[in-house]
Write a structure and sequence with these properties.
Structural class of chain A: alpha/beta
Distance between the termini of chain A: 39 Å
Number of domains of chain A: 1
Radius of gyration of chain A: 17 Å
Number of strands of chain A: 7
Order of helices and strands of chain A: HEHEHEHEHEHEE
Largest sheet of chain A: 3 strands, parallel
CATH class of chain A: Alpha Beta
CATH superfamily of chain A: SPOUT methyltransferase, trefoil knot domain
Oligomer: homodimer
CATH topology of chain A: Alpha/beta knot
Chain lengths: 166, 166
């Protein structure tokens, strides 16, 4: 779906940092794949995270379901996440999370196994994705290790500390 | 701090939807305050949420601390939130959450009571804010009622349902 490049970059980086394996995009500026490639190179984990361009979102969603995966569509019109049995979702092996800009086709609502709202209020698909991932992984995604990083942050109570490798 | 307008709008809307009372900005396009005013008018809660333009971020932070409030700076260089005693923070009455674009002045790291990382990996200040608010409010921010809404979503498993008032 057509979206703002800056926002799309945030979506891609959030997906990478918070435990997703892959991002599918229907339209994408090459600057986004480039930014993510650079982040992978510097901050690691490149082999475990990729971006794929798809022509037809509908084929992707349908094939995902045929393969036994579940589809979660994040939308302000859905059932609030606090009212969703997220423990059921945690038992799934493969989840495709769909987020869209303003105009998501009606078909998406029908194809989704779950239409989930991160509040029934307008805010941000970046924020919705982040909270969904944090809730579903229960914060465990913070423990994921990023292999082959050239840079690594040493957490500090004050200031910045970064160590370089190779 | 100077930032992208689209991202700033997301930050403002996330703050509104997820339980903040006020957003302070040092530089802002009037389109952002206008967008938020329109969202308040349509989706409610205007009286409980405002945006304030401040000239000096440093004065704001120092005065906040003088008034007994705590300052949390979200930065990828800080201590990861999983390693932060967030229960201590929940006991505070007033918390100022600071997020910045790429270049945050060193002084901010020194002035903050807490420099907290929502992962020590680059991603998105919108996502960091969202997860921080969700963690600190334990999802209770979803129960906040938005007064005087003209539109209200009726959560649906499929499709969109919005009711209008007045």
């Amino acid at each position: 779906m057509v979206r703002d490049d800056r926002i799309t970059t945030h979506v891609a980086l959030v997906s990478r940092a918070l435990g997703c394996e892959e991002v599918f995009m229907t339209e994408v500026d090459t600057s986004i794949t480039q930014t993510v490639a650079e982040v992978n190179k510097r901050w690691g984990g490149g082999s475990g995270f990729k971006i794929e361009i798809v022509r037809e979102w509908k084929n992707l969603v349908e094939n995902w379901k045929k393969g036994g995966g579940k589809v979660v569509h994040l939308t302000m019109y859905g059932i609030e996440i606090n009212d969703t049995k997220i423990s059921h979702l945690r038992q799934e092996n493969r989840i495709l999370v769909v987020i869209g800009a303003a105009k998501v086709p009606r078909q998406m609502y029908d194809l989704a196994d779950y239409n989930i709202a991160i509040r029934n209020q307008p805010h941000s698909e970046v924020a919705a994705l982040a909270i969904f991932l944090d809730r579903i992984f229960k914060g465990k995604q913070f423990e994921k290790h990023f292999n082959d990083a050239k840079l690594k942050i040493i957490p500090m109570t004050r200031g910045k500390k970064v160590v370089g490798f190779g």
